[in-house]
Amino acid sequence: MSKKDKGVVHDTIILTIITLAAGLVLGGVHHITAEPIQKQQEATQKAAQKQVFPEAKNFKAVEWDASNTDFAKALEEAGIDQTTVSAVSEAQDASGAKIGYVVTAANKEGYGGDVELMVGIGTAEGTKSLYGISFLNLPETAGMGMKADEPTFRDQFKTVTVSGEELVKYTKNGKQSANEVDAISGCTVTTNAVTKAVNGAITAVSFLEEDE
């Protein structure tokens, strides 16, 4: 073997060793950081869930198929179009008993795009009581649709209750019943998108309760 060939082999071996070493280092770093990152993500999610369902002590993910055709039919029958539900968790008390759900839902009819939110829904005594909503995505106009994230509008969903097949309604004439919220003045599109997303979440809870 010529000196030139020996040099090529030597360089190839060195490069291979460096590549393997780098791979091992990166793999080790990933292994070390993966668990803390996962724990941080779980803590962030639990904090968001706690915000919309403060009475819950624990949250347990529920198996949920976002493409379930029966659920899609339920949404259609309820008149809730352009709405999806991506995740559902069971809200539990200190004993582990179910007291409701936290649902992530979205509606595509926002003024600036998809309005996505998380909503806490209690299910005691056959009545669905909303504990609050938290926006995950609200691409609306500042000073207009963004008012949906102001307490004046958002906090209305902490006191809404629905019974049977009732859903949340918005009104421009002052709310008069437990399932109504006052619309954002001049922002019907945003109000409608938020209400539909919330109603999608309520429909998901009804859908799950029927299967129990």
TrEMBL record:
Membrane-protein topology: Single-pass membrane protein
Coiled coil: none
Gene3D superfamilies named among the record's database cross-references: 3.90.1010.20
All residue ranges annotated as the FMN-binding domain in the record: 110-205
Pfam families: FMN_bind (PF04205)
Any single Gene Ontology cellular-component annotation: plasma membrane
Primary location: membrane
Keyword Heme: no
Location relative to the cell: Cell membrane
Transmembrane spans: 12-32
Keywords: Cell membrane, Electron transport, Flavoprotein, FMN, Membrane, Phosphoprotein, Translocase, Transmembrane, Transmembrane helix, Transport, Ubiquinone
GO biological process terms on file: electron transport chain
GO molecular function, one term: electron transfer activity
EC number(s) on file: 7.-.-.-
InterPro entries referenced in this protein's UniProt entry, alphabetically: FMN-bd, Ion_transpt_RnfG/RsxG
FMN phosphoryl threonine PTM positions: T188
Leading EC class: translocase
Cofactor(s) of this protein: FMN
Complexes and interactors: The complex is composed of six subunits: RnfA, RnfB, RnfC, RnfD, RnfE and RnfG.
Family that this chain belongs to: Belongs to the RnfG family.
Function: Part of a membrane-bound complex that couples electron transfer with translocation of ions across the membrane.
Name this protein carries in UniProt: Ion-translocating oxidoreductase complex subunit G
Gene encoding the protein: rnfG
